[in-house]
Amino acid sequence: MYYLGIDLGGTHIACGIVNNEGEIISVCETPTKPERSYQEVIADMGQSSLSAIKKAGLTADDIAAIGIGIPGIADNTTGRVIFCTNLFWQDVPLKDELSKFIDKPLYIENDATVAGFAESVAGVSKGSKSSVFLTIGTGLGGAIIINGKPWTGAHGVASELGHLTLEVDGIPCTCGKDGCVERYCSATALIRMGRETCIAHPDCALSKAVGGDVKLLNAKIIIDLAKDGDALALKIFHRYTRYLALTINTIISFIDPELVVLGGGVSHAGEFLVNAIKEKLPHYLMFKTMPYPDVLIAKLGNQAGIIGAAMLGKIVYEEGKFDYAH
Amino acid sequence: MYYLGIDLGGTHIACGIVNNEGEIISVCETPTKPERSYQEVIADMGQSSLSAIKKAGLTADDIAAIGIGIPGIADNTTGRVIFCTNLFWQDVPLKDELSKFIDKPLYIENDATVAGFAESVAGVSKGSKSSVFLTIGTGLGGAIIINGKPWTGAHGVASELGHLTLEVDGIPCTCGKDGCVERYCSATALIRMGRETCIAHPDCALSKAVGGDVKLLNAKIIIDLAKDGDALALKIFHRYTRYLALTINTIISFIDPELVVLGGGVSHAGEFLVNAIKEKLPHYLMFKTMPYPDVLIAKLGNQAGIIGAAMLGKIVYEEGKFDYAH
Q1: Are A305 and A111 in contact (CB under 8 A)?
Q2: How confident is the model at residue A322, as a pLDDT?
Q3: CA of A220: how far to CAs of A42, A206, A223, B319, in Å?
């Protein structure tokens, strides 16, 4: 059998057909245009899905189940999206609408969970029983894989690793709390640290790299300068990776997974990032003589959304129930 | 069948026989006297176990398996205690030594995990599929129950909830890190806050309650004065329970369990403690319109050690393997 995996993003919808081994057979993409009604968005999702099936040389009969990754939260008992901020969706009957095009067992999950699950099925953490995935971009999302399955919590809101408190009364967060991990470990946090440095040192290499316009600063510029050995950029990078090491240590003290996997834009820094974290991690470990998780860079990139969603569909199909994690 | 549960503490060893329903049938206790050799301690443990079996009107044939809760970490593939600081044990062959007295499938687990598991089998969280247990005393320990079983991590060091970072570069912790949860949420932390208040306000009710000797201050004195409405004691109590609410919020953002259970000395404050936490919790929630875990006080007290250990033995017996969590 084959599985349909849909990656519903704020700008693009990617629909892909995936085989039992987690390999993508075909993909069709379409722009999301979230300013439209949800009916129109889901109709495009349905049409793209049918195109992907055709492109793979298959028919709907070959599809066992569907998984959808969304930048939000869903209730799988009703097949409704509870909310999805980027798409302005609230209480949207995604399953019912999509079933007008293709009607199969369907599972909807948060996109970070989907990406982390994809890595554990077909990516860098393949073969591991437990892993924690951090996607480090504008925000910071997470996924927890336990016994080979995503753990999404008793109320569907687990693995919001960007919103653990790292600093009581720390930097105010978009979520309404203060001092969340996201405010210290996201790309946004790294850029903020870079901007602070540019303001304090207007003649620094960072400031020159953006022609004095700190608004142009991004994570790649800071990391590239740190790689080149620029002292101030390295200082920022070590401050930033210290926060990441503290957060990974909290993950170890809490869950102690086999592996920690880093994805998202910042993870493109690759070994340079991993080495800076691994250098700091042992200092923070509670049990210094015990083995601890390796830290790895995710490898599926944009494919993770389709693969993870499809493989979640596979679990639901094989187990015949929606609360796969329980 | 029946199960033998052993609670190995720094001062006492309690051995109990437990039935399939998690009810204690008999108990025998003996002092630990940890200054002795481990062989002597384990011999007393074996003798007490045999006495408990006899007291229950049973023989060794009626015992299906043994569970032992220790204030430390063990390797169940070898049956050895890796370390157990209070008992000065390092790499102790607990299974081999105990088998000289009673030889059954045996599982050794950290005492906080054992207590949390007991609550989920026969205590306040009975019937729940997922829960997180915090034991709040001199230190702060934790247990994570997922799908009805303790999750102890890929390397056996999970659920060290006292050592999540709550404050970067915060109060130095006994573990070597700074700003751990234990430094803000344990009884020790509450007492520290009380002492600081006594020093700043030598005439306060707290200071009077201990005749000016801050060394006599304990958690109960502070909580009792707060219950009586003393303004300064209440201020400390609200500062302290705010840290607890932040930590419970981190637990929700991470694992999102069905229930959060509080045990240990501080939990004797009961509803007064729970209400102060519940009052603060909604403010910190990431998803304010979603349901979230209730916070409950543990109910098994000292019996948790025996019941939880015995019920872990039961899992190992029924599943026929030691890596029950995987």
Answers
A1: yes
A2: 59
A3: 35, 11, 5, 50
DSSP SS3 for B238? helix
Q: How many CB atoms lie within 10 A of CB A271?
A: 9
How far is Cα B279 from Cα B295, in angstroms, rounded to an integer? 11
- Which of A253, A256, A257 is nearest residue B164 as measured by Cβ atoms? A253
Write out the DSSP string of A140-171.
EEEEEEETTEE---SSS----GGGSBSBTT-S
| Least confident residue range of A117-121, A154-158, B247-251 | A154-158
A197 φ/ψ angles, rounded to the nearest 5 degrees: -65, -45
Which residues in chain B are contacts of A292 at CB distance < 8 A?
155, 157
3-state secondary structure of A257: coil
Domains and CATH numbers, chain B: 2-117+302-319 (3.30.420.40), 124-297 (3.30.420.40)
As beta bridge partners, residue B220 has none
Residue A199 in this model has a pLDDT that exceeds 60: yes
Averaged confidence pLDDT in chain B: 95
Q: Give the span between the Cα atoms of B99 and B93, in whole angstroms.
A: 10
Contact B146 A151 (CB under 8 A): yes
B-contacting residues of A 235-294, CB under 8 Å?
A: 243, 246-247, 249-250, 252-258, 284, 286-288, 290-293
State how far the Cα of B43 lies from the Cα of B46, in Å rounded to an integer.
5
CB contact under 8 A, A157 and B292: yes
Q: How far apart are CA B296 and CA B263, in angstroms?
A: 9
**CB-closest option in A147, A167, A286 to B326:** A147
> What ipTM score was computed for the predicted complex, to two decimals?
0.94
Please state, in angstroms and rounded to a whole number, the distance separating the CA atoms of residues A100 and A46. 8
| Per-residue model confidence (pLDDT) at position B211 | 96
C-alpha dist (Å) from residue B118 to B28, B121, B155, B263: 19, 5, 22, 11
Which one of A250, A253, A258 would you mutate to disrupt binding with B, by most B Cβ within 10 Å of its Cβ?
A253
Region A158-182: mean pLDDT is 95
pLDDT (tens digit per residue) in A245-268: 999 999 999 999 999 999 999 999
Q: Confidence class of residue A85 from pLDDT cuts 50, 70 and 90?
A: confident
Cβ pair B73:A184 closer than 8 A? no
Q: How far away is chain B from the Cα of A34, in angstroms, using its nearest Cα?
A: 22
Show Cβ contacts of residue B54 under 8 Å, excluding neighbours closer than 6 positions. none
Q: Using the predicted structure, report yes or no on whether residue B325 has a pLDDT greater than 90.
A: no
